[in-house]
Amino acid sequence: MKQVITTRQHGMFINFGKIYANLLQLDTSLLFQKILNIQYSSACFSQSWIVLLLALSSTGVAAGEDLQKIAPGIYLWLGVHEDFSRSNKGRIANTGFIVGSERVAVIDTGSSFQQGLRLREHIRAVTDLPIAYVILTHMHPDHALGTAAFNEDNPTVIGHQNLADALARRKTTYLNNMKRLLGDSSEHTQLVMPSHSVSVTQGMRLDLGDRWLELKAYPTAHTNNDLSVFDTQSGTLWLSDLLFVERIPVMDGSLLGWLKVMDGLIASNCHNLTIENRDLSTTRHNQNQQPCQPISQVVPGHGPVVTAWRSALATQRRYLDLIANQIRQIISEGGTIAQAVETVGLEEEGNWLLFNEYHGRNVTAAFAELEWE
Ligand SMILES: [Zn+2]
């Protein structure tokens, strides 16, 4: 049975307290860097126009020049294809919001309190409706650290069933890393824990007023706490970091799990929360089952919205599958992680932005997973 939150239930939640965290970079990356002598060069793109926009922004975060209306009532604030830096102030991931006739849902809040404030300004420039929900698509600091900017709205903060634990474990690392990487831009950033969780077997529906959102929690893929948001009105599926477009995908969960999730998405003709998320161990049927609905477009966690979303998923799948196959070969020949990092997937370099920053870590993580396959 799906979990449904309506206005009546708004305010009934489990209080997990406050959290925090920051940084996409795993604690282990520095260790592997040392062991393998991998050179992770910093990504400093000199884009003077970004610097100019930063200077003009009222909150110091690169402003709404990239705010896009991607469907009626759906707004995407596009992140830049860079690593965290003081110049981009951490605005590297896509965030946005969806407006119903009665209330608003925010999808991801960015990497800092300041970025969250700027996102809130964007919302207020569009609508005065109450900001009832903040949906966090997963734990990564470029997506989940701006939530405190919405405290005055008293929203229900929603995430995957594993999100609270994942954030709690990384709180200190994430916050310290953001302080180091973003400097003053990370001021006042604090961790806000989800007050409501979405289970992998049940999903959740949210009523925005004449508009329903369907939240789906996935088994471990990009992370162990990935959540997607489907807008039933427009057919927009917000996949967040389950899909990277242009920028190299980053693996922080399970390579095999992610491949499986992508296969399921590519094979699907439409979105249906009940069918895809039902508990297969029971024969229970949901009386509120919704019809399967066409997916018109997909919002990735990084990169532009795509209508040819199967093709975008296939491109990402090709990269991750290639890594898996080449690593399996090395493992079968008794090779080492260091050998894998030196050779695996290098032909993909020209296909992805930030390849040198993240590919080595993907190979390292994939090797650790596959050697126990
Ligand atoms: Zn992520």
Précis, in short:
With 373 residues, this protein is α/β, with parallel strands linked by helices.
Structure, described:
This protein has one domain: Metallo-beta-lactamase, Chain A, CATH 3.60.15. Strands 2-3-4-5-6-7-8 form a 7-stranded mixed beta sheet, covered by helices on one side. The chain is of the alpha/beta class. The chain is 33% helix and 17% strand. It has helices spanning 27-36, 48-56, 113-126, 141-144, 163-182, 255-267, 273-277, 309-332, 337-343, 355-370, and strands at 3-5, 67-71, 74-77, 95-99, 104-107, 131-135, 156-160, 196-198, 204-207, 212-217, 227-231, 236-244, 297-302. The protein has 10 helices and 13 strands. Zinc ion (ZN) binds at residues 138, 140, 222, 241, 301.
